[in-house]
Amino acid sequence: MLVHEYLLVFGRSFLFALATLLPFLNPPAVAPIFWTLTEGASSTTRVALAKRVAINVGVMLTIAMVAGNVLLSFFGLSLAIVRVGGGLLVIASAWRLVNSPDGGAQSAARAAESFTPEMAKARAFYPLTFPISCGPGSIAAAITVGASLREPDHIVSLVKLVGSLPGILVTALTLYVCLRFAAQFLYRLGDNGTAVFMRLSAFVLLCLGVQIVWDGVHELLLSVLVEAVNGGSAASAQ
Predict the structure, then answer these.
(1) CA angle 40, 43, 48 (to 5 degrees)
(2) What whole-number distance in Å separates Cα of residue 53 and Cα of residue 46?
(3) pTM of the model
(4) What average pLDDT does the segment 184-193 reach?
(5) What does the pLDDT read at residue 106?
(6) How far apart are CA 20 and CA 104, in angstroms?
(7) How far apart are CA 190 and CA 211, in angstroms?
(8) What is the pLDDT of residue 110?
């Protein structure tokens, strides 16, 4: 292959990774959830958390893209099982947000005193990174991108991998920007607008969790039906 053909493969891999992963992460929708779960934290703490979450997401997507299929095969897991388990985590987190009371100035002040750096570190991965920012849908999408990297020509596979990594980087940077400026965006909405927006975002997250679980259950049921049909056909043939 010529150099320009490798560059074309690189560009296509970059766009494919970006177009596949970014809609699943949906950073603008994650931002209000991030703001709610870090209520009472200082601006400095929120900036540090946004940076850490973005890094965690980038690392998770890279691992899922490069070694996702290998890890699932090693543990004997299917994507359907990952969807069901991750979807349940999303539902649990969203349910807590939907039923959480609206915090006032006094509660925010009390939370600020108790939101220590240790708490920030503890929340950086769960639930802020997984499953809120990078859920099973994003992981499945990264595994799908990884599957597309396989080519008979090892050099082409390497070029595709190198092209996909910047796509993950841009996705993580987009998430960081949305989380970093979530407070400024919500401040413009006012207290009432922010409360309404939080409830709607939590409800959308709850629906997303149900959808993820249903996708996994639907895939599992289809596999059971296929096995039953194949088993019946084999028995009839005998």
Answers:
(1) 105
(2) 10
(3) 0.70
(4) 71
(5) 40
(6) 39
(7) 31
(8) 43
Confidence of residue 60 (pLDDT cuts 50, 70, 90): very high
Separation CA 74–CA 76 (nearest Å)? 6
| Residue 113 neighbours by CB under 8 Å, 6+ apart | 40
Which has the closest alpha carbon to 94: 45, 30, 183, 182? 30
Farthest-apart Cα atoms in the chain, separation: 75
Tokens of 31: 């931002």
Backbone angles phi, psi at 153, to 5 degrees: -85, 115
Q: What is the 3-state secondary structure (H, E, C) of 164-231?
A: HHHHHHHHHHHHHHHHHCHHHHHHHHHHHHHHHHHHHHHHHHHHHHHHHHHHHHHHHHHHHHHHHHHH
**pLDDT tens per residue, range 104-137:** 334 434 444 445 667 777 788 988 898 888 887 7
Instruction: Please answer whether residues 93 and 131 qualify as being in contact, where contact means their C-beta atoms are separated by less than 8 angstroms.
Output: yes
Angle of the 27-37 helix axis to the 3-25 helix axis, nearest 10: 50
- Look up residue 222 and give its two tokens: 């289809």
